[in-house]
Design a protein that fits this description.
globular; ten-stranded antiparallel beta sheet; Lipocalin; about 15% helix; about 150 residues; 10 strands; alpha+beta
Length: about 150
Amino acid sequence: MAFAASLVLTACSGPEPRDPSSPAATDADAGSPPRAVSPASIQVRLQGTWEIVRYTSERPIPDDAMSLMGDLFDSLRLRFEGDAVSARAGRQAEESARFTIADERGDAFRLVAKGGLFDGAKCRFVDADTWEVTDHGPTWPGVSLLKRARR
């Protein structure tokens, strides 16, 4: 059940974007172009429900954890809605938490969900309905492949 406990997704977000025309904006803000969310942004592309279809561990998986791993592959879902993400594994559901995207470069990015599933993981879209996660976190380090759930 350690994996289910690792699904806790706590909020983590950077500062709210500032409107350069607001009185609180600084001269440095006024010289920077505003960052608009484009239709091709990673946050927009992540919207919806995803399921893990492949996982390759960085280290051997203990025999007693193998059945749990099998159960999770059949039930683990991540759902992105706006700037919130929630995880569900069977009956284990987590509250929605905020997430942010860092280091966005084309199809590659880093997911930030402080203390949660895939926090700080390097990610990249393989295609419109598939993304890969390389996570070196302490609980389940390895590479996961997620596909958009078809429901």
